[in-house]
């Protein structure tokens, strides 16, 4: 893609073709990220990036130019990734969580009709044997037990991995570089970055099935970095497109 700020590209690299922030600017950016939770909430609305609203962004700092990255473009971003709030709607519970509970797809209509959202699912005083048996009409005791245990694991996970926990950042490794459309990045990035202008900084919020899914992410040592079904929030800035 042609440079969005030609003069800047010429100063930094001597040629046109891409723009990238110098190290001093990146360091300043990460200082901002370290305190972004202390900033006044942005008044702009969340912008949905897919039809079901499972991925959305909120612009914190406007970018420049009109050109956007296209499939095949090499892009670079700075980011801080944190665990987001598991604010699931009924549809989120069914699409993101229930479909990953083996052999329990048939319960989906009951979840929808009973309005089982994320709050209900993770509340042990509501999501009980009696509720699953009578309200969700799960008569099979094994299936009932599987649902109860899975909901308890999810609730325990929320306690062990609090909202706002930072799990990754480009601060030490430098900008994250990838090619759009190659499937080398999480789906949420593939949806968000093509909507960003050069220099734009946004919050990106995504459901787990657009990130690390039902498996989450672990280090090679086995340490859990991103738990299963985790909603993620990225403070992301586009450095090159």
Automatic annotation (TrEMBL):
Gene3D superfamilies: 3.10.50.40, Transcription Factor, Ets-1 (1.10.150.50). PROSITE patterns: FKBP_PPIASE. It comes from the Eukaryota. Residues 1-17 form the signal peptide. GO terms for molecular function: peptidyl-prolyl cis-trans isomerase activity. Residues 159-241 form the PPIase FKBP-type domain. GO terms for cellular component: cytoplasm. This is peptidylprolyl isomerase. It comes from Attheya septentrionalis.
